[in-house]
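Curious: why these numbers?
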Amino acid sequence: MTPHHLQDKAFLLLLIAVTIAFGAILWQFHGAVFWGVILAILFAPLHRRLLKKMPQRPTLAALCTLALCLIVVILPLTVIAVSLVQEASTIYERVRSGQINFGLYFQQVIAAIPVWAVDLLDRLHLTSVAELQEKLSSVSVQASQFLATRVLTVGQNTLEFVVSFSIMLYLLFFLLRDGASLALRIGQATPLNEAHKRQLIEKFTTVIRATVKGNIVVAASQGALGGMIFWALGIQGPVLWGVLMAFLSLLPAVGAGLIWVPVAIYFLATGAVWQGVVLSTFGICVIGLVDNVLRPILVGKDTKLPDYVVLISTLGGMALFGLTGFVIGPVIAALFIACWDLFAPKHASPTTR
């Protein structure tokens, strides 16, 4: 081995080591860094427009973009979060005091089910009615305790949240102001073919914008519509249930139905027929239509990913990375497909070309 090759390998090893060490340092605030990068990518077109109007003042353009980001995205989320915490605390207190009894609700539904349906449940060895009621009561108590614990944890970690939020805003400002030059330097340092780098970067930014904007539009629409119909029907905690429906709508093919379907069944089983019919009709024709129409247009069309890949990558990403996985999963899937698309023609055999 020549000294030149040895130096190259030693430098490559050093480069990998310091990169891993730097990543470990950032990991503590990986959520703040991740969403800072995501917001910078989403608001980059707006920043470029402002920069054209004030080409000699990039700092002012970045500050204006940051202010618009605060007004459009962060302020509404803060208001919703405050309302969510208040309603979650109220519902938890009512569950603990017995004013809300999920076990009783389930018993009412079972009492309205025909005898043959109850016998069918027993024949299928699903479990007995009593066991189902006991399990549902246990799950409801655990869910309410988990929700209360989350609310308490948020309160205890206020300082950590403020620090992470400040880091995200600080990073977002510099990514908006210096993002173009930083991306250029990263591209120059990446040892790939120029055409491949350009294609991968375009794919990366396209998937992020389509996934975030598409999923957020679908989630916000379904959550708002679900909360609105719950409020109209007099169901307690419409903001809480709306937020839950918005969160669940991030899961393709599952969606907000996990919330409104059991409520509709309860209405129908307990004699509140018109409420059940209205909620079922609204859920199928309005809430469900949003998912079936908007998601393929906003997500699948731009990412050019099949629906099953979007579903699996979203579920897998959220299982590994939590809430941010609904972005990370499809991005990894899209880059996986893009890399193999670049690799396959280059290494295809002469007979297959």
Observations:
- The chain has two domains: 29-189, 193-344.
- The chain has 13 helices and no strands.
- The mean pLDDT is 76.
